[in-house]
Specification:
Keywords: Membrane, Transmembrane, Transmembrane helix, Transport. It comes from Pseudoxanthomonas composti. Pfam families: AA_permease_2 (PF13520). This is Amino acid permease. It is a single chain. The chain is mostly helical. The chain has a single domain, classed as Up-down Bundle (Amino acid/polyamine transporter I). The chain has a two-stranded antiparallel ribbon with strand order 1-2. Strand 1 and strand 2 form a beta hairpin. The protein is globular.
Amino acid sequence: MGAWLRRKNIDQVTVHEAGRQLVPTLSWPHLIALGIGAIVGTGIYTLIGVGADKAGPAVLLSFVAAGIVCACAALAYAEMATMMPAAGSAYTYSYTALGESIAWVVGWSLILEYSLVVSTVAVGWSGYFVGFLQWASANTGVDMSLPAALTAGPHAGGIVNLPAVAITFVVAGLLMAGTKESATLNAVLVVLKLIALAVFVAVALPAFDPANLHPFMPYGFSKSVDAQGVERGVMAAAAIIFFAFYGFDAISTAAEETKNPGRDLSIGIVGSMVGCTLIYVVVALAAVGAMSFTVFGKSAEPLALIMRELGSARAAAVIGAVAVIALPTVLLAFLYGQSRIFFVMSRDGLLPRGLSKVNQRTGTPVATTLFTAVLVAALAGVARLDEIAALANAGTLAAFTAVAVCLLVLRKREPHRARAFRTPLAWIVGPVAIGGCLYLFWSLPSRTQVYFLVWNAIGVIAYLAYGRRHSLLGRGEQA
């Protein structure tokens, strides 16, 4: 049993061999921009439609429920990240607190999360890109539209979602060019994205009609199945738009590349989470108040659709254009996080070691980033937005639960260890995060739960076949 639960030494978690160390180049403004860039994206630009379709105007409560769970998880992440400023996020924390086999499951779940998030955002970006091209074609007289077969996967009658594939490789190229360079560009694009949301609120709020909020909760609070077999309700929507809140965990993957992790990581994680929660509440209220959810609930670009229906074609064009330009900030943050998860698991020997080599010129893991891009681009080309978002949430909920458990375990095991950031009311925050994540997992579509269990069954086989035998910690070497 000891081999399954062997743990890393928390004092050695930041010590790494030459050639497999990431370069610290980021400060707290980069981290807040990375967090906001990851959090404010597909969730509010596209999934607000999916959530409204499941919960009606009560999608506002769905945002609140998901936000509370994420806030508790964010506090746990802040404490763990400042205690262990190493790449790897929940995987690394689990390796030191809970043991290797559990860390593998968490890492495997993170691979699922980040891969599917990037794919989901790429598909969402494609919807706005195609809509923007159609608008440009209609207003310039020049046909810029793409063939339908190249803008959707097989499920929608197409062949491949080419824009989704292309944007994935563009962002991967930016990441391979250098971490600080891509983080600086990300910060600029985040500002543009927030300006677009401000434009939406400025146009939509004056059109607020209380009648659009009735009936407020047409499908009830708990998950239920309607006559068409669709799972609806406030918590069913919360389990999907939970996707809209996470992203702060991508900040924790940047711990090893942060100049002053003891201070900057907690500022980045908590600051981005608080800021984004306020943004979401205002934007969601403006959306459901300006128009009936039955109108925009099925749209691939709900915010732009609302603007057009309100007669503000110019504002719709601005939102569509900025979504095309700025949604890739989410791609950048999560593709970054995914490549770092692969990198750290490889550095520990649980995945092939070739993935943990750092390019001497750029200071980035080029091979890992390219491998990740190929994987997620293939998925984005053929996947459905709602299904892959739900499955990404399952992986995230597993990781969030593990981090909250790590928080409590280390508070008990090592109560006197120095903590640059201490989670307030840890014995309340931790259980709320754990219980909330488990309830949201139960609220996910049943098919998603089965897919998640199948994914982890495959992961256990992979661990037994490769990871357990090649683990550096298991072989007595320093990972």
